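Sanity check record (used in CI):
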Amino acid sequence: MYLQDIFIAGSETSSTAIEWTFSELLKSPRMMEKAQEEVRQVYYGKTNADETGIHELKESSKSCVIDGYEVPAKSKVIINAWAIGRDPKYWKEAERFFPERFLESSIDYKGADFEYIPFGAGRRICPGITYARAVVELTLAQLLFHFDWKLPGDMKLEDIDMTEKFGLAVGRKTDLHLVPIPYKNHFCY
Ligand code: HEM
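Expected output for Cytochrome P450, E-class, group I:
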């Protein structure tokens, strides 16, 4: 592994996660309100949402057979975590942005539950997992704490383009343009 790998593996992944979260929150005003309420409650009385409140390459060393498929030694195996996370065999309303599904579930993202492996699992699980969580959560918390969010002009929720761009970290095809409205938190002034 090279130092460069850490930068490549560590930047677009986190920004992509933040951008998609924001796209989904904008499309779902109820979730946006709930998320903002939660963040603003946690940081109530504070002037900022600070840290106090809170790839997929596998190289096999030996040949093996998985589910009838032979995987020769030294193959690069890319696990489609995107498809696993949307498999209706394991998820109710798999395509729906419904973060509350995790509230009453023991399933988490740390690699023990194979139906949900955004950071991979096992020996090659993402080593940046703790840092990534801090970056994504802190960035989202600050954006939700300090601003309300509007779409530009007379754009409607259904006009938000959710087309994906193919890649290792599947990003947005088009940039997400939003208008921030500063939230008047009286503790700030
Ligand atoms: C939301 C953010 C991130 C996501 C979703 C993510 C996801 C992943 C996934 C799925 C893998 C492949 C695991 C496997 O092969 O089973 C991986 C590997 C890796 N990640 Fe992340 N990652 C994120 C952030 C980061 C950050 C911030 C860093 C470093 C600062 C990082 C460094 C790495 C490295 C070095 C590997 C290769 C590990 C290996 O092959 O042994 N990642 N990541």
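The chain has a mean pLDDT of 88. If this sentence no longer matches the regenerated tokens, the check is flagged for review.
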